[in-house]
Amino acid sequence: MTASDPAPPPGPQPAASAALYGPAGFEEFFRHYEPMVRRYLIWQEAEPGILDDAAQLTMVSAFRYWDRVGQMDPPTGWLFKVARQRLQDARESHRRNGILIGADAIHDTTAHPDPITTCDQRLDILAAISKLPRRQQEAVALREQFGLPYKEIAEIMGASPATVRAHVHQARKTLEAMLGDDKEGGDA
């Protein structure tokens, strides 16, 4: 049994989908947002097989509600909320079906290189983030990696904006303490 999709907010009726995404419509939307959904799922530590299932199911949900999702500007918060639910569904499905996934599966988190931060610094940051409590990891990733506003992050995480701010603040404080040596060198 899968969780239902979050209802898209009321909006313009069909026919206007091309307004935001041009004549290509969903295909253009898919090319733009599907990689972002995958990066979000990587931050959620989705195992490779489960990541594929969750990403695909998220985009199927977007297509299913295309008349309204196509009007969202931006639809990122809704997509991440659906991706989070689909990830839980996919994990449960794999568990029910006896598909074992190694807890230490390696993910390609460097698929989208950061031109400013060196590879070693990026690896140090990722290692430090992995030591944070789960909710702090998610909040700081959504804020720093995806640039989402606190209100959207709160909707995705099912928390209040104040709680999200607290998670991000605490994560930043902890990361600063863990990576303090890098800052002293002037490279942070």
TrEMBL record:
UniProt KW Transcription regulation keyword: yes
Assigned keywords, A-Z: Sigma factor, Transcription, Transcription regulation
Domain called RNA polymerase sigma factor 70 region 4 type: residue spans: 123-175
Keyword Metal-binding among record annotations: no
InterPro entries found in the cross-reference section: RNA_pol_sigma-70-like (IPR039425), RNA_pol_sigma-70_dom (IPR014284), RNA_pol_sigma70_r2 (IPR007627), RNA_pol_sigma70_r4_t2 (IPR013249), RNA_pol_sigma_r2 (IPR013325), RNA_pol_sigma_r3/r4-like (IPR013324), WH-like_DNA-bd_sf (IPR036388)
Highest taxon of source: Bacteria
Ranges for domain RNA polymerase sigma-70 region: 29-96
Family: Belongs to the sigma-70 factor family. ECF subfamily.
Record NCBIfam families: sigma70-ECF
PANTHER family on file: RNA POLYMERASE ECF-TYPE SIGMA FACTO, RNA POLYMERASE SIGMA-70 FACTOR ECF SUBFAMILY
Protein name: RNA polymerase sigma factor
